[in-house]
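Tutorial, part two.
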Amino acid sequence: MHEVPGDDVRGQAVRICSTAFPDDPMFVQAIPQVARRMALLPLIFDLVARDCVKDGWIDLAERDGHAVGTALWSDGGGTTTSLRGLLSPEAGRIAALSGLRGSLRLLSLQRELDELHKQVITEPHRYLAMLAVQPTHQGRGVAAELLERGLKRADEDGLPVYLETNLPRNVEIYRRKGFVVVRRVEHHGFATWAMLRPVG
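Running the prediction step on this input gives:
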């Protein structure tokens, strides 16, 4: 397990997220061109990882000495891919890759997620910004290991946990870990489930 890491571990987390989420509905809708989307994802996930290093922590799961899964946690108070991130110097590169329409779509979706987060929970909490596993290691308990470690830490701190997922198959997985759906929001072409897990 690695927490609040340097650039190397942040880079590993970004790599894992980029390989795990190429077909996430949010990114597919905003950036339908596959090559453009694949070039864009590392930039977006690096913004998430930077925020988590600053306001939370990054956890890695390893198999045979190699990082194969990651959980990106924030101390709450708003989604980590925040508007300040999208307005950062890196945003120029994101805009160049995504195009005007893609950039506006990403910004609009991020505003919706930020607002959803603020509506669902205002008290102190942990935010699971990303839970990702390399495709070659999915279904082997890596995600469960990472999730259980983060939930244990949240329970020890006496804090609930919030997350969003755009994948219907994940909803039942998180329910088995004590999360409940508190809001379902329809976007153009996909839905987001906001889920909350009370302390303990």
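The beta strands are 56-63, 66-74, 126-133, 161-165, 180-186, 191-197. In part three we will examine how such features are distributed along the chain.
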